[in-house]
């Protein structure tokens, strides 16, 4: 029996109170909206609109095909894992389930992974736990891949990142810190704010923390995930799995880099790689709307690293994120209708 089939869902996902869930999502949504508001206000609405009007949106056509091709490749990779369990739902079902899950993630982060497994269960009678085990494996591979991409990005763009960090992060923080050093009330206010933040985090996650401590599930959870990961050895064509993974990240890079041409920005491959990596990190944050706000803020800073303006960075982030939002929700709706008919 393949070990992916025995991975269990965390029980707290089923028993967590709705009020805490709402507060959890409201908290991170507020962060995203706050960052987006800061960007727009700081840049100026008129300047942003003028910049967005100058974009050559015809570049959205090749980016669309790159995105579709990437999701097909991701679906094929998922099918390789499902095949180890003896399930062959087919490319059409896997693709529609994937896009349906992406759409759900825009409303409730991480719920899309559950949604696509439920969709396959309803349409093709694939056990939920089995499908969910393959998703855990996929996510682990993606995290390792992103870590590898980040390491390459930092090593390749070390000089640019070091200069940016010193000029825009270290020096401003030191300047503000020295200005506040003699203001005891300001220091106390900051300390109280940090304390309240940690208390809020502990309160939001106290159920999970208590459950982990009481039932001693930390070790068993890691063991279950590890068993799912090691099941990759059962893939019939491991070389094909690796090729699919490389293609997925290459397409991620292309879908970011091609937007530079739409803005008539003469950016290097190095800049595209760094921006893609930082954008991927932003999208992985538990913020609704595909990292709304956080993605815009982080990508805008990444563009500045390579000598471009904040206006160019903000415009690039808005267009790229907006395109991916329309694309994933649009195909997600098609996937939802597909499974509704099933």
Description:
With 342 residues, this protein is an all-alpha fold. It has one domain (3-9, 16-341). The protein is 81% helix and 0% strand. It contains 16 helices and no strands. It has helices spanning 12-15, 18-43, 45-53, 60-83, 91-107, 111-124, 128-156, 158-180, 184-204, 206-215, 218-230, 238-262, 269-283, 288-291, 294-305, 310-341. α12 (238-262) packs across α13 (269-283). It is globular, with a radius of gyration of 22 Å. Mean pLDDT is 79; it is low at 1-17.
Short description:
It is built from 16 helices and no strands. The chain is mainly α and 342 residues long.
- What is the count of distinct domains? 1
Tell me about the largest β-sheet.
none
Total number of helices: 16
Q: How many β-strands, per DSSP? A: 0
- Rg, Cα atoms, Å: 22 Å
Q: What is the assembly state of the chains in this entry?
A: single chain
First-to-last CA distance: 29 Å
Low-confidence stretches: 1-17
Classify the helix fraction into a percent range.
over 70%
Task: Determine the mean pLDDT.
Answer: 79
Index terms:
0% strand, 342 residues, mainly alpha
Could you give the topology of this structure?
Layout: H1 12-15, H2 18-43, H3 45-53, H4 60-83, H5 91-107, H6 111-124, H7 128-156, H8 158-180, H9 184-204, H10 206-215, H11 218-230, H12 238-262, H13 269-283, H14 288-291, H15 294-305, H16 310-341
